[in-house]
Write the C-alpha cells for this entry.
Amino acid sequence: MNARLLYGFFISILLHSCATQQQAGNDNSGVETTNAISARILTSEGSPAANARVRIRPASWVEGDTCGTAHNLCLDTVTDNNGVFYSDSMRQGEYRIEASLNGNWMTISDTTDSLPPTPRNLTIYRLQKPGTLEGSIARAIPIAPTKVYIKGLSRSTLTDSLGHFSFDSLPAGLLTVLSATTDSNHATLFAKAAVNVLSGSHVDAGPVQAISFLLDDFEDGDASSLLLTSTNEWFVAPTTTIVMTQPLKSQGIDSAIVPADLGRAGKALHITFQENTNYVVIGIELKGLHDFSELDSVEFWSHGSNRHSFSLENFTNPSFALKAYVEYPLTTEWTRHVVRMSDFAPRNDWGTGWDSVKHQVKSIDFLVWGSELWLDDIRFFGIQDME
C-alpha cells in the first residue's frame, strides 16, 4: 500500500454558530448564520497530507442525494502544503469529512468547534486504519437488486443473489447501514442498522433487519391491529350517488376479501361499484394521531379500472382537514406502487401536502374512480408498528 495513503476513522462534526453572517439586501429576517471550520490532516506516518482533496457532507446524506452546495450544505476543497483546510461558509449541522490522496478516499472526523484557524484552535486529525464490514439484508420476499449505503459517506454496494454485501474500506466508529431496493422508479428503504466498525479489523454485521410494518395482506381478515381502532376493519364510504356491488351495504368488509385474481397468491381486497363520475373511499382509521415523519416509503399492489389515489389524512378538525395524497392510474394487471414522500402532491384544492400531516396522521385512505379496485400487501418502510 502506498505509504502516503490516508487511513480514516469515524467522526461526526457539529458546527456551531459563529459571527459570520450572510444577508440578502437589508432584510434582517433573511439572515443565515454560517460557520467556520479549520483542520490539519496528517498521513498515517504523521506528516502533513499536502494537497489532499477534502469533501464535507451532512451526516444524513447518502450517495446519490443532491449535494446542496449552493445552500452551504456541502464543501469540496483541497488542503494546503501544511495539510490544512478551512471554510467559513458551512451551515450549522452535523457533518462528516472525507479526504483523499492518490484517489483513495478515507473518512476523518472528531468533535470540534467551528472557529477561525489560529494556532490554538486548529484541529489535528490523526488518521487510523480503516476496517472491513460484511453482512446480509434480511428480506421477507426476494426483491433485487438491493443497494447498501453507509449514511453520511460516499459508500455504496449491491448485494449478491443471496442478499450478502461487503465493504473493504470503512472508517472506524459507529456507522449507520441503510439498504434500499432499486427495482422501480424509486428506491425503497428496506433495512437500517447501527454497526460498530473497528480500526484495522473485520466485522460481520449479520442479517440487517427491515424497518417496516405490514399494514394488511388480507390473509387473516385483520389488519395491523396495533394501529387500528377497536373494530380493526377497513371502511368503505361511497359518495351518495355510488351504488356498491361488493361489498353490499348489508354485508361487512370481510365479504370483499377474496382469493386474488390473475395468478396472484393468497387473498386480496376486491371492491366493485356502478361506475359514474364520483368516487369511493376505502380507508382505515388509526388509534389516535401518529407521527409518520420518519416514513421513507409505502408499497402496495393494485389493479382495477380508471384511477385511484393513496392518502394519509387527519380529519379530526372538520373545519380544516389535513391530507397528503398521490394519484396513480389503474390497469388490468397487478402493479406494484412505491410512494415516496416527495411524490405527494403540493398544497392544492384536494390536499394540504405532506408537511401539514406528517406529524399527526389519523387515517390511511384510498380513493377510487371507475368501477373496481383490487388491493393487496400494503407495507410501510422507515417506521415500525406502534402502540
User: Anything to note?
Assistant: Residues 175 and 221 are 40 Å apart (CA to CA).
